[in-house]
Specification:
By secondary structure, the chain is mainly α. The chain contains 14 helices and two strands; from the N terminus they run H-H-H-E-H-E-H-H-H-H-H-H-H-H-H-H.
């Protein structure tokens, strides 16, 4: 962390009695001022970094607290605090950002990205406070052979979970400060333009399922950012704003690691509570015991590795939907990986309200753990069903706006869920309601 990124520790402090990690996470979520929110997050990150160093010096000790900061408990808010001066609009009804060809367009893009980073700070903090302690129900997993009366048994995430999301929160804070400083260098400020809360809407939709939070927010929405960032960076470069382009490249590099984090904890929850990824003998014992007894030491976490050549995706030059489905099916070799992908697709179908469409940044998605077999089947399903939730909501919202309606439109219903067969393959869409 450079001196410019360091929070002013002598000016910032947490209130008396706010001593634990999760209490401080929630305090930051309640912080209204966006700069103070980012600075407090960076301060907490420095404090937690010292705890990590102390923990690692204990030669394998697994304590979840070190002197000055226990893990603690705290209830996150339904929605993080924001300044009253911010003008909120529904997604799709804000300022048209353009393609960075003019100063006003570049300001609009930077402002939109700064808004995303503000919500991303709160999302990472909410993950820790909401899912640091969890039950089988709030894990969002479909536990097989679940032991009776143990659905409310409480679990606690490993240290690595808090380390990962604390780092993510600090990354997002750093990004916000960079973007805000860049805005100010152009004569603008965060809050000058309308903003939306679509990311937090997704957090609300996944508030009762850690598995869904990882799949939707970090593995789907953040990976979509990996798809669009390179084009945005190129537009800033073409416009001559290389300072912004350089900054956005650094942001993009961090976002790859955020997809990795979501992938890591999605796979962890599947392994711990559904037995996905265990070897055959361990899987049998897991099922007989009702699940949940997997060693949760940090070194037991599933980590994505580049697949060996034998498992590499087969390139097909054939056009058309059938060849795409065939390509995905051929690429899936490892049964545990196939199970992980199938569950991911089921969760996304259930919880994600947006659209998933190419082009994809396959190289950076793969760095984050998502080879094409994870997400391409979802695109095929949507094409075959004709289900376009994002467009449907936008069309309805325009109609509401013309009629002067103020209430939020209901989510668009569709046949997408029914189009995913039990075996994970793409099934024909229903022909009628």
């Amino acid at each position: 962390m450079s001196e410019q990124e360091q929070p002013h520790a002598q000016e910032l402090r947490f209130p008396e009695g706010c001593d634990s990690l999760l209490e401080r996470c929630v305090h930051i979520m309640h912080t209204i001022d966006p700069i103070e929110k980012a600075d407090l997050t960076l301060l907490l990150g420095e404090q937690w970094k010292q705890i990590i160093q102390a923990r690692n010096s204990k030669e394998g000790a697994k304590e979840r607290e070190v002197e000055s900061m226990p893990l603690g408990r705290a209830m996150p808010p339904e929605k993080p605090s924001r300044p009253d001066t911010l003008e909120f609009v529904r997604p799709g009804f804000g300022v048209k950002v353009g393609k960075a060809g003019s100063l006003s367009s570049r300001i609009a893009i930077l402002h939109a990205l700064a808004n995303v980073e503000q919500w991303a700070i709160d999302t990472a903090l909410d993950n820790m406070a909401r899912f640091g302690y969890y039950t089988q129900a709030t894990a969002g997993t479909a536990l097989k052979n679940q032991i009776e009366n143990e659905e409310n048994k409480e679990f606690v995430m490993p240290n690595r979970f808090f380390d990962d999301f604390m780092q993510m929160a600090c990354d997002e804070s750093k990004h916000f400060k960079w973007l805000n400083e860049r805005l100010e260098s152009q004569g603008a400020h965060y809050g000058d333009l309308p903003v939306h809360a679509s990311i937090w809407d997704s957090c609300t939709d996944t508030a009762r399922s850690a598995l869904a939070r990882m799949a939707v927010v970090h593995m789907t929405i953040e990976s979509r950012g990996l798809d669009v960032n390179p084009a945005t960076i190129a537009r800033f470069s073409r416009s001559g704003d290389e300072d912004s382009a350089k900054m956005l490249r650094k942001v993009h590099e961090d976002e790859v690691t955020h997809v990795q984090i979501g992938h890591r904890w999605f796979c962890y929850l599947l392994k711990k509570h559904e037995g996905v990824g265990l070897d055959q003998d361990a899987g049998k014992a897991f099922g007989a015991a009702g699940g949940g007894d997997v060693n949760d030491a940090d070194d037991d976490l599933y980590e994505f590795r580049q697949v060996p050549p034998a498992y590499a995706e087969k390139k097909s030059e054939e056009a058309g939907e059938a060849s795409e489905v065939k390509q995905v099916e051929e690429e899936v070799v490892d049964p545990a990986e196939a199970q992980r992908r199938k569950r991911f697709q089921e969760v996304v179908v259930q919880y994600f309200k947006g659209s998933l469409k190419p082009p994809f940044n396959t190289a950076d998605r793969e760095k984050g753990g998502l080879t094409r077999g994870w997400y391409e089947p979802l695109v095929v399903v949507r094409e075959r069903t004709g289900f376009k939730p994002a467009a449907g909501r936008r069309l309805q919202s325009k109609k509401d706006k013309q009629e002067g309606a103020t209430a939020e439109t209901a989510p668009v219903a569709g046949p997408l869920t029914a189009a995913v067969a039990q075996d994970g393959e793409v099934a024909p869409a229903p022909t009628s309601a």
